[in-house]
């Protein structure tokens, strides 16, 4: 598939280098040739109910978040989210990623899941939850999200779990970041 056409409908993934990185990390041409943007917070509403209605039961799911603080990060799962009252879901191939920090100087990076850990949490009162609070959104996406990176996913060298550096790595802070846009793609 032509790189310029991948994410042509995205308000977040505008940089061709980000497209290349996501394609490299997911490494699934079938996903990219068939994927559709099933959810956009700006289009569909900044809440978990609308997000779950759009993505639950779809299978492979890519979540991309852009914060008002100008960070871009997200996660990918091959098993997808389920419509449930709360369930920890395992996916040994799940990963989270960072594409840009507030200054735009961080190199895009992919972070694999520790074993054994649950990859995602599916519960109707939350938006996307990756790992053990590595990042998550509450039911209202206008409220601050949370990130304590390193609970379930491997940290980059020099970053320690449950420290300011781990809590601020993905989104700039533990609990002071706010979603500007959230997009979810699936097949």
TrEMBL record:
InterPro entries: TLDc_dom
Residue span(s) of domain TLDc: 11-187
Protein's UniProt name: TLDc domain-containing protein
Species this chain originates from: Anaeramoeba ignava (Anaerobic marine amoeba)
